[in-house]
From TrEMBL:
Pfam families: Extensin-like_C. InterPro entries: Extensin-like_C. This is Extensin. Residues 56-225 form the Extensin-like C-terminal domain. It comes from the Bacteria.
Length: 225
């Protein structure tokens, strides 16, 4: 029995190696991230690998011309040390204003925008998103600003708080104004669900009152509420 399994694996290995079987990149843990590739089961792991590799991370953004970003030097602000930073101004849709964030978060956002955000916008509202309003990424603080306890993902600029979406036809859809209301509400709900395919941590109005007016989208962790 064990022999047969070994032979099967060998045959499979040779077939993969010779390109006789084509498996999409997103199903392979060892292929690098490309913004063109839809989210797959190893995306979180691939994003984690970019965390300490600014060169590889920036190369992912550079390979996708719509991405607007500027590499930034490492800085220390208060008690928070920041590395692998970029100033990110969005891809197809513009970040308003541009945001200082860790590079893997910008990559995650780019994948999310390309494959999930506009799909939700088109399905419920018939147009793409033109602009993103947000509350920023970096804040040197603990969770909920408590004096003690765990550091927030914002302390390392590994999360983005998204408050509203401006559509290409000029409409503005905000979490504070449209959550649970009509087509806009259904769009926002789907945005939250689709975000979980890309971001390890997604918190929104269904989670608690502190998130009533924004989605917290973080790289790393495993929460989808
Ligand atoms: Zn947040």
């Amino acid at each position: 029995m064990g022999q047969w399994l070994l032979i099967m694996l060998l045959v499979l290995g040779v077939a993969l190696d010779k390109g006789m079987i084509a498996i999409p990149d997103r199903w392979l843990p060892w292929t690098p991230i490309s913004i063109e590739t839809p989210p797959g089961p190893f995306l979180g792991w691939k994003l984690a690998r970019l965390a300490d590799d600014p060169e590889a991370c920036r190369a992912v953004l550079a390979a996708d011309p719509p991405q607007r970003y500027t590499p930034l030097d490492d800085v220390t602000r208060g008690q928070c040390e920041l590395s692998n930073l970029v100033r990110y101004a969005g891809g197809q849709s513009r970040m308003q204003p541009s945001v200082m964030t860790r590079c893997p978060l910008a990559v995650a956002w780019a994948v999310f925008e390309r494959h999930e955000l506009n799909a939700a916008a088109r399905a419920h509202l018939g147009v793409d998103v033109a602009q993103i309003e947000h509350f920023g990424s970096f804040a040197c603080r603990n969770i909920y600003g408590r004096a003690e306890g765990r550091r927030s993902q914002h302390a390392s600029a590994e999360a983005l708080d998204v408050a509203a979406f401006e559509l290409e036809d000029g409409r503005r859809v905000s979490l504070s104004g449209h959550w649970g209301k009509g087509a806009e509400g259904r769009f926002l709900k789907e945005v939250g669900q689709r975000a979980c395919k890309v971001f390890g941590t997604v918190l929104g109005p269904d989670y608690n009152a502190a998130h009533a007016d924004h989605f917290h989208l973080g790289v790393g962790g495993r929460v989808c509420r």
